[in-house]
Design a protein that fits this description.
By secondary structure, the protein is α+β, with helices and mostly antiparallel strands. The protein has helices spanning about 20-40, 65-75; strands spanning about 5-10, 10-15, 45, 50-55. It has a single domain (about 5-75), classed as 2-Layer Sandwich (Gyrase A, domain 2). It contains 2 helices and 4 strands; from the N terminus they run ββαββα. The mean pLDDT is about 95.
């Protein structure tokens, strides 16, 4: 997994920075499609040119292999 992901409060977290809001939203749409395809959805915070993703498995109460696999796949979107 990309080293840009970090653990915060028991969640995998990564911040992404883009040129503007349009690029940030295009990335969010790609992440959304990927998450839907895998049936595993991150928490997403969108600011003007920034996106923060948080991954963890609610039913497990922490990070699982599903989260790590989704993090890897998200890293390939850029």
């Amino acid at each position: 997994m990309d080293k840009a992901w970090r653990m915060e409060g028991g969640h995998l977290v990564r911040d992404f920075v883009f040129a503007d809001f349009v690029e940030a939203m295009a990335f969010v749409n790609k992440v959304g499609a990927l998450a839907e395809e895998r049936g595993h959805h991150p928490d997403i915070l969108v600011q003007w040119n920034k996106v923060r993703l948080e991954l963890w498995t609610h039913t497990a109460g922490g990070v699982t292999e599903k989260d790590e696999a989704l993090a890897e796949a998200i890293g390939l979107l850029r």
